[in-house]
Amino acid sequence: MAAAARLPSSVLEVVFSYLDIADLRHCSLVCKSWYKFLNDEDNDVWRFHCVRKLAEEALKSDVLSNVPTYKAKLRAFYHAWNPNDCSRNIYVKHNGFTLHRNPIAQSTDGARSKLGFRTGRHCWEVWWEGPLGTVAVIGLATKEAAMQCHGYVSLLGSDTHSWGWNLVDNLLLHNGDNQGNYPLLNNAPKYQVGERIRVILDCEDNTLAFEKNYEFLGVAFRGLPNTLLYPAVSAVYGKTEVSMVYLGPPLDG
């Protein structure tokens, strides 16, 4: 262990660049110096893994503009849309963070993230990059929630397995019921295409909240179940695109 702790950073960078993420997690537990080295989220090890995993398009565009470090960008990639867990009418673009809905008539289509949450506090951004249509819902879903249905409906929030905020009419939805207006503001402004909505999940308090333009909009849902919950959206407009980027634990205040 003493010899490992004395290895220079240049050697560690080369060795760690060949290891996968799980191995790096184990390495961070070997000694204090390795932990300190790997805890630097912007060093060349994380840069190497980031460049290897993420598309150049994602790294050069502004999709990750609110993700400051290489390790955080890599973390966001592992939490991005799951191309194997979405409607057949949706595909995830090459950047890995943006979904595209094909122009299919009389269909509502959804997508889930790669990873779900059962513990901790988590924050991610979602934004529409095309027209919303009559229904555009962001929120949460369990693995049991459907990701496609016939017609133009609020798919997310249509059953007991999902919770959603319809950005078109500012209504909260769960179990097929209208849960009331959101946010609770007089003449609350409607969502504008391109605005980034921050979604805040607190698995300790079992709540879901939203933030827009750095303004906390209040708790939207309480009493969430103690099960894996996945960031999710549902859309109806043909050729619309929705991006999602995981940010990590929310910053209080």
UniProtKB/TrEMBL annotation:
GO terms for cellular component: SCF ubiquitin ligase complex; synapse. It comes from the Eukaryota. Residues 59-251 form the B30.2/SPRY domain. The keyword Transferase does not apply. Residues 1-49 form the F-box domain. Pathway: Protein modification; protein ubiquitination. One of its GO terms (biological process) is protein ubiquitination. PROSITE patterns: B302_SPRY, FBOX. This is F-box/SPRY domain-containing protein 1.
